[in-house]
Amino acid sequence: MEGGEKMGSSQLSNKIRRLRFDNGEMTQQQLADKAGVTRQTIIAIESGKYTPSLLLAFRIARAFGLSVEEVFRYEGDDLQDNRG
Amino acid sequence: MNEIKKNTIKAIITLTLVVFGFAIIGIVFPVIAITDGLSPTIFAGLWGIGIWGGFMWLLPLICPPKSKKRINWDERDKMIHTRSVLIAYSVLWLYVVSVCMIFWGAVGPEGSISTNILLLIVFGGLIVFAITSTIAGLLLYGRGRKDGE
Questions:
Q1: How far apart are CA A59 and CA A64, in angstroms?
Q2: pLDDT score of B24
């Protein structure tokens, strides 16, 4: 998986910024309105300063019409890929 | 005037009213009470204000601010508010213990202090709680750092 911001001390990364641009240059406010959160929360998630709840992660993924795994990635998957 | 400026003005007005309220109730009344001696009824009223004032932090959790135009309170705000209140309560506990130890050390186990001091401790605790929760909230929100685009 390319790019993505690592989320704080957790092992999560996301492609929200790229997906926004790929979806008709969606603004942060538009994504926030679709996900039911504030624009500041979207900013914090994109920059890796905040890890969303499971419900919010699903809402963000549904805003792009994608699954959660296509938007967020758990870095532990890299370890399993390397072992496999 | 955009929404940010409106919210800033609202915050400044709220802060001014809160500080003014603290100054009048928290400082002036106890000073007058101690020097001139007010009736117990007024002290009871001030105690009530102090106790209920301490529960004001519950308001955003019970009645979260709502805007018809846009969401302005979400899970991240709730998390930050909860954490800042927990931090403030920890500092408040340290403050209460410190004050008690200071007075115990000052007057000794056989000494006595005026009960008016209790009122000052309560209001001092309110001020400590308010300042600590505000600073904790600002740090958790990450003010001063560049975020986003």
A1: 9
A2: 67
Query: How distant, in Å, are the alpha carbons of B48, B50, B60, B103 from that of B27?
Result: 16, 12, 27, 19
Closest by CA position to A60, among listed B75, B64, B68: B75
Residue B134: CA count within 13 A, CB half-sphere: 9
Question: Do B140 and B84 touch, CB atoms closer than 8 A?
Answer: yes
Question: Between chains, do A37 and B148 touch, taking CB under 8 Å as contact?
Answer: no
Q: Which neighbouring-strand residues pair with A73? A: A13
pLDDT tens per residue, range B105-118? 998 888 888 887 88
Tokens 């890796």 map to which residue?
Answer: A48
Confidence label for B127 from pLDDT (cuts 50, 70 and 90): confident
Of B109, B132, B112, B146, the residue nearest B54 (C-alpha): B132
Q: Alpha carbon A9 to chain centroid distance?
A: 15
For residues B46 and B119, the answer to whether their CB atoms sit within 8 Å is yes
Contacts with B, A 39-58, CB within 8 Å: 40-41, 43-44, 46-47, 49-50, 52-53, 56
Tell me which residue in B70, B71, B76 faces A50 most closely, judged by beta carbons. B76
Question: Which residues have C-beta within 8 Å of that of residue A22, sequence separation ≥ 6?
Answer: none
Return d(Cα B17, Cα B27) in angstroms, integer: 15
Using a CB-CB distance cutoff of 8 angstroms, which residues of chain B are in contact with residue A38? 70-74, 76-77
Q: Is B66 helix (H, G, I), strand (E, B) or coil?
A: coil
Nearest-angstrom CA–CA distance, A24 and A37: 20
